[in-house]
Amino acid sequence: MGDDRQATFGSDGSLDTETPPEAREGTTDWGEPKGDGETDGGYNRYDVSSLLQKAVRRSDEEVAAWAAWELARSGYAWNLWDRLHLYVVEDLRAGQDVALLVERYETLANERWDPKSWKGRLCAIHAALACARAQSSREASNADEFFRNAARARADVRDTDDDPAVDFPVGDFETGGTYDVAFDKHTAEGSRLGRGDGFFKRFGARVGPEGEDEQSARWQRLNMALSDVEYDDDEIAHAVEPVHPNQRWADPVEFGAESGDGDEPEERQRDGNDA
């Protein structure tokens, strides 16, 4: 007996091995022919698919589990997995490990077992529950929409003297501005400015605001001490100092041209608020 043919006992005590309703191909639970896009329970699969995503977005575990089960048992497992993969990129806070779990459950359901089977349905329920329990957020979708709106606003005033209604967070993004540190030896403009290893170590390689752990900071200090570029104690300390949470792009002005980097102009003040 297959895993979809689990034995049950009737009211008279006799063993009932009749194939359960969900295993009858092409019919609903009450034996009627299924229409296009109809689930075994008589629902529209597009509606159930939409419900699944709304349920995991709102962290409704029971509804999410049912919607996943209904799609899987009705032969629409592909629709289920497509929705769950969409969810993890559209409605999930970045960094949630559930994205990897969904991939694993799908692999088990589709490659090891029949997605309509008992084991396949369990994978569907597990995946839906994992998604519903994860931290939902529309941050990626909201960011994408905002960046597209900003791009249109910038384009609308491209040949005028007006400022865009909204702009990209980096503004014009040019040397001397807030994000000047990005123009280091890894960019053509940074190379033209003579910003070599010294500039990168002191400014471009800083992390934060949590900062380096002590071992990593120790290695960085030793690397700078052993470098062909000469650094004073303040420069080494600054290189491993966490960036300030309110001024992530700030760097001091007192560091001048660095030895070994060629003719590098003196760094201008970058206080994190320059236009």
From TrEMBL:
GO terms for biological process: DNA replication. Residues 8-17 have a biased composition (Polar residues). InterPro entries: DNA_pol3_clamp-load_cplx_C. Residues 21-37 have a biased composition (Basic and acidic residues). One of its GO terms (molecular function) is DNA binding. Residues 1-43, 240-275 are annotated as: Disordered. It comes from the Archaea. Gene3D superfamilies: 1.20.272.10. This is Uncharacterized protein. It comes from Halogeometricum limi.
